[in-house]
Amino acid sequence: MQGFDFLLLAPIGSILALTFAAYLAVKILKSDPGNETMQEIAQAVRIGAKAYLKRQYLGVSIFFAVVFCILLFLALKNYLVIFVPFAFLTGGLFSGLSGFIGMTIATQSSNRTAAAAMKSLNSGLRVAFSSGAVMGLTVVGLGLLDLSIWYYFLNWYYGVNPQSIPAGIDKIGAITSTMLCFGMGASSQALFARVGGGIFTKAADVGADLVGKVEAGIPEDDPRNPAVIADNVGDNVGDVAGMGADLYESYVGSIVATSALGVAAGLGIQGVTVPMVMAAVGVVASIIGTFFVKSKENASQKVLLAALRKGVFTSSFIVAIIAYFLIRFTLGADHIGIYWSVISGLIAGVLIGVVTEYYTSSGFKPTRFIADQSLTGPATVIIGGMAVGMMSTALPVIIVSIAIMASFIFAGGLQHFETGLYGIAISAVGMLSTLGITLATDAYGPVADNAGGNAEMSHLPPEVRKRTDALDSLGNTTAATGKGFAIGSAALTALALIAAFKDEVVRFGSTMQLDIMKPAVLVGLFLGGMLPFLFCSMTMRAVGRAASKIVVEVRRQFKEIKGLMEGKAKPDYARCVGIATKAAQHEMVLPSLLAITAPIIVGIILGVEAVGGLLAGSLVTGFVLAVMMANAGGAWDNAKKYIEEGHHGGKGSFAHKAGVVGDTVGDPFKDTSGPSLNILIKLMSMVSIVFASFIIRNTLSK
Amino acid sequence: MQGFDFLLLAPIGSILALTFAAYLAVKILKSDPGNETMQEIAQAVRIGAKAYLKRQYLGVSIFFAVVFCILLFLALKNYLVIFVPFAFLTGGLFSGLSGFIGMTIATQSSNRTAAAAMKSLNSGLRVAFSSGAVMGLTVVGLGLLDLSIWYYFLNWYYGVNPQSIPAGIDKIGAITSTMLCFGMGASSQALFARVGGGIFTKAADVGADLVGKVEAGIPEDDPRNPAVIADNVGDNVGDVAGMGADLYESYVGSIVATSALGVAAGLGIQGVTVPMVMAAVGVVASIIGTFFVKSKENASQKVLLAALRKGVFTSSFIVAIIAYFLIRFTLGADHIGIYWSVISGLIAGVLIGVVTEYYTSSGFKPTRFIADQSLTGPATVIIGGMAVGMMSTALPVIIVSIAIMASFIFAGGLQHFETGLYGIAISAVGMLSTLGITLATDAYGPVADNAGGNAEMSHLPPEVRKRTDALDSLGNTTAATGKGFAIGSAALTALALIAAFKDEVVRFGSTMQLDIMKPAVLVGLFLGGMLPFLFCSMTMRAVGRAASKIVVEVRRQFKEIKGLMEGKAKPDYARCVGIATKAAQHEMVLPSLLAITAPIIVGIILGVEAVGGLLAGSLVTGFVLAVMMANAGGAWDNAKKYIEEGHHGGKGSFAHKAGVVGDTVGDPFKDTSGPSLNILIKLMSMVSIVFASFIIRNTLSK
């Protein structure tokens, strides 16, 4: 086996994933699109979503053009390798493409899921899940493709032009440091997608609910609500396109961060390629796993969840077995400990998923506790939800802590420090290796949600809505699990990126000793610890402002369009979509700039050690805050659903009204601010790495 | 001046403070106690408060007895100096005494403030403020007394028995390390007082509001509400006794932490005594400052605030001048930079106060923004308040960061690292030097609040209530400012304590390098970053549970006591007080134990470096979270008051109901969970220091 180039598995895995995704996509498109109304509604959502993305990509491309020019300037000034600006571009492009493809298929699937749900629950599940799988496999397929292309290209180029290898490193180092930088493109794109999409979706959702449900007293997804299409568009641009870009970034980030540490870990070229090969194995395992997801009619929540779990667990199991032989044959028996690092990550991911489910599913105590609190009104619902969210941070932090220690020690960190860091980094790759299928279980949720909206607006029989509701409710839990994965892996990846930043600083002839007792490091920690709060504050206020614009518009339409409430006239859906789009585009700029400029500003004023502190501080607070917000939001949402099932007086009761308040507060928590944090902490690390030499040469301190 | 023993100023300052406090107390007691009803109501509150404190001290004394035995055992096993267990006891005793005296006089002052407010606003202000001043001066007086006694005793004892000086340090080192440990007693007492009192006060407040205001529709402080006395008792045990113990701990903690670093900083005995002397100067300045606080009739909020500010600024100014000469003559011209460290702290404290005021006073945008959000219901009020609270963390973090850097550099940290750390520590002493008066402006708030309750229940003319309301509303802002001081100084003190912990670890022959890249340190950071969230979750849930017990009891009384609503029968106030007392005592145990055991457990499993990370992590997150919770809570409270003044529809409107929800959510934020965090982070550091040798000898790692 020694002669075999395992790395070939990466492009092969990529092509397999993309081919299978294309096959599923075609299958979905061939399935019954439902009656004319259903198709019309789906089309309205599709048009709105595409219009949003078009606008979004336009705005983002301006940003990319500016940053590209800055990077090109820095590269020409010899601060950076010449390929960095281009790597930055492709990272952004592929990340955006992942979101776009996932969303395109999701908007084609909502009416088809509704149509399939007319037949049976299993049919509905199959269509929705297939749509999720297209997304999952596209993300991993494009990720591996981008990585493979760059690796092979740079390997060839530096082989032919050894003189262009930057000073201070060898060929492998030059390759990994460039690849690391394309993570910055992916992260930037992801941040815009998450923040912009998150603001859009929650502004539309909150706006639609506030006027529709609360003021006008019409049900959710009622076609008379002018913001209802915007709400459905939001699910797609935020929860689908945003999530796709986000997890593309996590996936690619974990791989490049591990590769970057491979050389320092003394593992040679194999250390660099193993994470990519491992990812390729995960792709195959994910494809196999998708075949295990099916359900019977009248399946309970638990049975449905078990169906999804079966797919995920099968994939994990396959990865766990193949990874052993992979590492045995590439890194050799001496480094078999690294296998256990991978397994640590894999297990930590599964455990975080279980913990998340416990805290956010109405089958367990915490969410029911919040539902109970609704009996004494909205204030106690909020206090209860905050308490549950805060409590829910303990176990994920402990799990990640154990994973860090375990993967460090397994990899031999006590003997060779750098190999230990490599172990930590690769545990994130292990955690995300089955992303193809975990993302599928996650991305099917918004499709089911939209299918429900479609069924409601098309006046389909109530049992259809009941089926889509069952799928949707499950989606809330899997969405929280997906966020758990994203943030758990982010903690490990960000740590690897800080290590890579340190390597980069040392390479440029500076030193970096991140001793907490040093005032600069400590001040960095403080500033970094505060940034996630500031970032969340900005995004939450943005949602508030955008939502109130929607509120004003919906009120205006209710008032000015005659016969709207009687169902005789149609509302102007497009206007609400347009308003949400404009607001989201406008509001996403400031928080994103904060993330990108903060490390550079801190570095220039206080030096690279303060930047190290900044990254560590934002990592710690960002992680805890993200878990808190995602879980509190998920629990509030499901507590409301639990009440709607008939507990504590059911729909319309005093308790329900209190539950709706909790759900509304949770919306920006779980879908805007919280899930952006994992990107924030990695993007800040990437920016630090890319601008390391610039910071070192221009710092005011020392 | 070289021959003069400046340290004599410490006992002199202490006696001055206590004498002046006694003078003010007598003056208050001699003033008009109001009519019989007023006295009766005040007595009911007084009895309830004393009953609570009695019970609290009983519970806490069991805890102290247990810990005393453990410490004695460790001392006999040579892990600790023999005086540590006794220092621990006196720290707790004096901290408790501060709270007790402050509360005793506060409960005597509420009816007298109401009586004085019948004459004029200025008379009311004078009584309430005098009561606050008694508290402020008692805290600083007792603090200096305890410090002086221990210093002089140990100095004498070790002078006579040099053989009992522990190995590895000299006489001064032995003195400071023992004194440091009595901080642990003060912090333990403070944590119990804040948590227990905080749970009591908010359980009673929330419980009274939920049934009284929301369900029964009777106004606040209505005598028909069975929980109304408990609510008033809560103000005293939480906001007065709790705050007294809290700030005693901050005050003493900042001084002993600085003294502990004095030797390592190379400043000799002067470095040890200067912080005490500086505190003594602050006492005199505070006494002078109290004479500047007076107001005219019909003074607006701004004028009233200016009146209080005048006192604080005068004191700060006096300290700023005298400190120069003090440091010039004790530490010498070479170390005059340390003067600027003190000034950095003083300015940082004032600036944090200004920022806090901006974010929590209804005179400014953020609070009005929250009030505006009430127009779209409770959900947007909550989202808005969270966003404001999170946003409000940015400036305090930046201010403290600048203070850290400035005081480090001014003190000469770039040349001599340890002197720089000393500079950071003494900047906290500078910040708290005027505590005598800042605490007075803070502690007068609950007295005014209770005076309002007294006026309401005694059916005094509406203009009296209006005057007490004016004083009370101002109290909300000064309370938030006081919390800003407590948390700002805590950040600086905790940093000094971590440094002292490191010194202690080194003294016991172990090494400690808090490099963030080390997995143990990083895992410590993560765990530490999570602890404040877990702690807040526990305390908030405790409030929720205790409040629902009150709700049940109030509902029962409304139902079972005939003629209660018509005012013909009296409710059973004592029962509500009893329930809240029992619940608070029960609920305060777990979160407090968490704080005390966490560093020991982490240390035993992962070693001292992980403990260092734990302390830094909890410092960063605790600081940010505390500011967020205190400011969000203050802003919600004042947004509600702003609406009640007639904005957005005024009392009883839709907006007002939404505002009440925000206020209720803010209650445990600002009065239970948030203000306990500054104690938590220091107590954990103190525990780490005291148990350092135990951890080193028993750790499982290495």
Helix-strand layout with pairing:
Two copies of one chain form a homodimer.
Chain A: H1 9-30, H2 36-76, H3 84-119, H4 121-160, H5 171-216, H6 228-262, H7 268-290, H8 301-330, H9 337-360, H10 365-373, H11 378-391, H12 394-410, H13 417-432, H14 435-457, H15 462-507, H16 519-560, H17 573-587, H18 589-606, H19 608-644, H20 654-690, H21 692-698
Helix pairs in contact in A: 1-4, 1-7, 2-3, 2-6, 2-17, 3-4, 3-5, 3-6, 3-14, 3-15, 4-5, 4-6, 4-7, 4-14, 5-6, 5-16, 5-17, 5-18, 5-20, 6-7, 6-13, 6-14, 6-15, 6-17, 6-20, 7-8, 7-13, 7-14, 8-9, 9-12, 9-13, 9-15, 10-11, 10-19, 11-19, 11-20, 12-13, 13-15, 14-15, 15-19, ...
Q: Would you count the extended β strands of chain A for me?
A: 0
Mean pLDDT of chain A: 90
**Whole-angstrom Rg of chain A:** 24 Å
Helix content of chain A: over 70%
Low-confidence stretches of chain A: none
Supply the number of structural domains of chain A: 1
Q: Please identify the oligomeric state.
A: homodimer
Shape estimate of chain A: globular
Largest interface: A-B, 79 and 79 residues
Summed up:
Two copies of one chain form a homodimer. By secondary structure, chain A is mainly alpha-helical.
Description:
Helices cover 82% and strands 0% of the residues of chain A. Chain A has 702 residues and is mostly helical. In chain A, helix 9 (337-360) crosses helix 15. The longest helix of chain A is centred in the first third of the chain and has 46 residues, at 171-216. The interface between A and B is large, with 79 and 79 residues.
